[in-house]
Every structure is written in C-alpha cells, then in structure tokens.
Specification:
five-stranded parallel beta sheet, 19% strand, Alpha/beta knot, 9 helices
Length: 226
C-alpha cells in the first residue's frame, strides 16, 4: 500500500510514522508513506496556504490551489489517479472499524490534513472522494485524525502484525468488548489473578472469557448489544 499525506506540518507526521507498528509495517514493505509539505505547492513568496473567507466571517480558509497541485503531483508520481483522496474533517463520516477494513484493501490513499476554519469548498466538491471524522469534536488540524485512521487501517494489512489474530480479536470488532486480561505475577499487592486462568482447563477459560466479555459489554457499552 502507498499512503500519501499532504500536511502543513510534515515533521509532525514523520515522527508518528517512524515509531511502533507503522515503522515496522514499512520495514516489512507492507506500506510506503510519502509526506508532502503543503507549503511547497504554493506560488507566492510568503508560501501562504490560507486566506480570508469570501463573504466575511472569522477564521482562515485553506486555499484550493496548493491542495490541487499536491494531488496533481502525487498522481503524476503514481501514474494514476489515487483510489481515495480523504479529507480529515469534523463534518465527515464517522470513522469506525468497518471503514478501516474497507480502506485497508486499497492500494493508494491520499490524506489531506485540514486546518484553520476549513478548506475551500471546491476542494471538497472536485478533489476529495471521502470526508472522514474521528468524532464530534474539533482539533487544531487534521494530522492527528489522519494518524488515527492510518494506524487503524495499516494494522489490518496481513503481515503487519506478528499475530494477525490479535487484530481480529481486538475489542469492539466483533460487536462485543474484550474480556479482562492478566499477566505475571499471579499475586500483586494482594490482588490475585482469577483461579480459572491458572487452572490449565482451556474449556473453562474460554467459557469464563465469554462471560466476562459479555458482562463488560453490558456494563460499559450496552449500546453495542442493541
């Protein structure tokens, strides 16, 4: 998979991609990241990427020209139009695991990181193929939301995680929260690991885990059971 990110803060994205699973995914040649500095696609001396909104009002708007130029350059490098041009926006479709699965099957994704009050609507209508939101709140820019989406989808690519079952069994994915987990030591500050987990009886362990997962879901996320 090739993932291109267009951002006004390239160092911020680079630091994220150089750590943890995203770094390992690159080392395993499962994904290639390309980070583009939005200001490098400007044509004025000040390298301005934003301007005042027509009609008045507060805030600044990202100009269309640098964003269109950036995607043109990416299309030129990949010799075809990107499968998806995704704008991270609080107005977008709410991100979930199903969306992550869908995106994980793509070969080429472009993420546009919005800033300020928003982006010129001509970008949304003529360049963007999807708008995605990670929640009903507003952040300073689209970099952190893009990183959330990218991390979520990359770990679903077969071969990225050492044990792919660990991705398939993640909490929420199957419509129920995960069961409680314990590790060594068996007793810590008087707190004991449940005896069933130390019994060696795999059938009882499995039954205990199913029951605890259901109990946790009822308590924390009853909406999932509906």
């Amino acid at each position: 998979m090739r993932i291109d990110v267009v951002t006004a803060f390239p160092e911020m994205m680079q630091s994220i991609f150089n750590e943890s699973i995203l770094r390992k995914a690159q080392e395993k040649e499962k994904v290639n990241f390309y980070i583009w500095d939005l200001r490098s696609f400007t044509t004025d001396k000040r390298k301005s990427i934003d301007d005042y909104p027509y009609g008045g009002g507060s805030g600044m708007i990202l100009k269309p020209d640098p964003l269109f130029r950036a995607v043109d350059k990416i299309s030129e490098e990949t010799v075809h139009t990107p499968e998806e041009v995704i704008l991270m926006s609080p107005q977008g479709e709410l991100f979930n695991h199903r969306k992550a699965e869908d995106l994980s099957h793509k070969k080429n994704l472009v993420f546009l990181c919005g800033h300020y009050r928003g982006v010129d609507e001509r970008v949304v209508e003529n360049l963007v193929t999807q708008e995605i939101s990670i929640g009903d709140y507003v952040l300073t820019g689209g970099e952190l939301p893009a990183a959330v989406v990218i991390d979520s989808l990359v770990r679903l690519i077969p071969g990225v995680l050492g044990d792919f079952n660990s991705a398939e069994g993640d909490s929420i994915i199957k419509g129920i929260l995960d069961y409680p987990h314990y590790t060594r030591p068996p007793v810590y500050r008087g707190m004991k690991v449940p005896d069933v987990l130390l019994s060696g009886n795999h059938k009882q362990v499995e039954e205990w885990r199913k029951k605890k997962a259901l109990d946790k879901t009822k308590r924390k996320r009853p909406d999932l059971l509906k």
